[in-house]
Amino acid sequence: MRQLLRTIIASNALIGLVTTPVAIAQPRQATPYDTADPMIGTGGEGHTFPGAVAPFGMVQLSPDTDTTCQIRKCYGHAAGYRYTDPTIQGFSHTHFSGAGHSDLGDFLVMPVSGDDVQLEPGSSDDPGSGYRSRFSHSTEVATPGYYAVTLSDYDVRAEMTAGTRVGVHRYTFPADKAAHLVFDLRTSMYNYPGKVLWSTVRMRDDHTLTGCRQTRGWAPDRILCFAMRFSQPLTGHAFVDTEKNIAYKGFQGPGRGTDTVAYRQGRALVARLDFGKLAKPLEVKVAISSVDEAGALNNLASEPGDFDTIRAKTKAQWQKALGVIDIDAPQATRTNLYTALYHALIAPSVAGDADGRYRGPDNQVHRTKGYTFRSTFSLWDTFRAEQPLLTLIQPEDVNADIIRSLLVSQQDSPFGILPVWQFQGRETWTMIGYHAVPIIADAYLKGIKGFDADEALRAMVASATYGPYGDLKDYMKMGYVPIDKEPEAASKTVEYAYDDWTIARMAQAMGRQDIAQRFYKRAGYWRNTFDPKTGFVRAKKSDGQFRTPFDPTAINYGSDYTEGNAWQYSWFVPQDQTALFKAMGGDKAVVAKLDQMFDYDNSKLDYSHAEDIAGLIGQYIHGNEPSHHVAYLYDYAGAPWKTQGRLKQIVDTQYKPTPDGLSGNDDLGQMSAWLIFTSLGFYPVTPGSLQYVIGRPFVNRAAMHLPNGKTFTVIADHMDGAHPYVGSVTLNGKPLNRSYITHREIMDGGTLHFVMQAQPNKTWATSPASRPYSMSTTRSQ
Hints:
carbohydrate binding, GH92_a_mannosidase_put, peptide-N4-(N-acetyl-beta-glucosaminyl)asparagine amidase activity, disordered N terminus, 39 strands, Beta-galactosidase, Chain A, domain 5, Putative alpha-1,2-mannosidase, 6-stranded mixed sheet, alpha+beta, 22% strand
């Protein structure tokens, strides 16, 4: 292009049209919106979906490549779509982004052209055996809020967009073939016989369907309803109950009035919807509600407009949301980071209707007052970095909505405790700990308002003292969870202790010294499972003895640890790393042990039975959360250059801008939030401490536009592969000789300036006074 311009300029000069040089514009970096790539994580073990969703949207409208798997075999299809699959089964309206478990996939729609309409999905090995279709990745387009693909077996162009509570399909059919939709109420992820307990479909007129279904899956009893409106009238339909193999054909032809009304109920419903030959695209607008059909209809009406209107509105929302951080970095890094930011803003999802109604953990309908009910809380994952990221980049009302939703869920809970792993208001009891507690405490300590602090503290204490949950009864009585009474006892003890520390921090800030002292004591219970002889956190029996035999590399579900082993869990004392390091033998011993962890030879180990164990660097497992803070622990031992080296090792090997670019499940944004923080040069090792531990940046420059109107900028000089270490750091022009920054320093705005260099600086931030928070040394902060 530049040579062409020079030729034109030269030619024009010869004929007198140009007498002065013309400046040639330099290419501009793509916008954040155009840089984010929803295809990242759709292959490998990322478990993300490529379809359309608005920021924190209730509807995630996305293709499903296979929903015919059975329970645990569904792990690879937890998000419905898997990049390596050759066919698309249809497009459903609910999906998890990067979960380590499968569910959702509600209300699948598949466009079909021609006269032969099959009502079974068939096999991906034999696409003609059912309604699924082959496709090519070359026809796919995926951007935030929009997805498109050509279904080659039907010659149908399928497009998807989504608003907050609606999803909109647009199908362009061949003009010479009849257009149909298959609407399948039987399918979902996490399939097994009897998963769908009951479903209904109702034709309200020749443009509108409504209905509900009740499922038993990951959540034991979940109700979801829909309202579906077509841009063109139905010319015919058939509702089929395949359990009884009975079809209700309904009306045939373009009739109007009461003769078009049809209703069907059963456990295995599928519908054929006919539109005849179409001269223009068919739009299908769908809203969902966990309350009832009226709620779905109201949600449908709450977001008026056609496909292009909804798409434009959602695009504007994503442009604003992704523009919160301006990033200057190599293209691959920018793609990874803006995609990570996109993934971090999908959940917690809106779960309440436009009129404020929602379905709670008690399976009853409630109504909010002045806020939006949100759900999809993968708390064991997201308390670490995802939720702390939202406190920095989201408006206060969004963060307050999250806290109020947690609190109202505790009030609605039959057990009176905060959510553990909740979606659409329904509790799954998956994973361990009571990690809604650090999310609430961290928000309160950061000054986020909009919720009742006294009410929050009561809810936190209630969750931490509910004896039947995870054997808290014995934990409170004995100071640890005994392995002969409760599985995964070693992990539960250390995670409970951290959660207890966050209760103490919030209580202290509120002047509730009675509660603070009680929970500071419990925050030290990690000591009861630390074995000084082996240097590992271990499971202990009721008689006070450690369980044997002991293998620190063993990973088995339901054993001493949760999705990990002693190597990962022995570092989980974020509230008091100084005390842990002292117990381990001091700084030198800790640095050696951390090195041993990262450099461990796994060649004789087999973890193929453990689905979540991915992204191994020795015994460091980046694809699962218990390891996420470990690289930063060198800072606490006075060796920050070691943190810098390990972070480069992790970033270089665990993230890439490709469909298989995530080494493990994104876990509702946690893997992504880790990358965002790390690339900016700091990470919230201990949410609730109001500190971020400094690592090293991976961007030339990044400007974070804060909700209070200020900007916090990170600059890195000499940012390239030849300069992996931090030489010096300044904050607002003044030397920063500690390995952490505070939340207040970020929120005040300013500039964090790194100078990178080729060799480690072994004098920067090494003294005990320069290290991050530990309870035993800096409780008063």
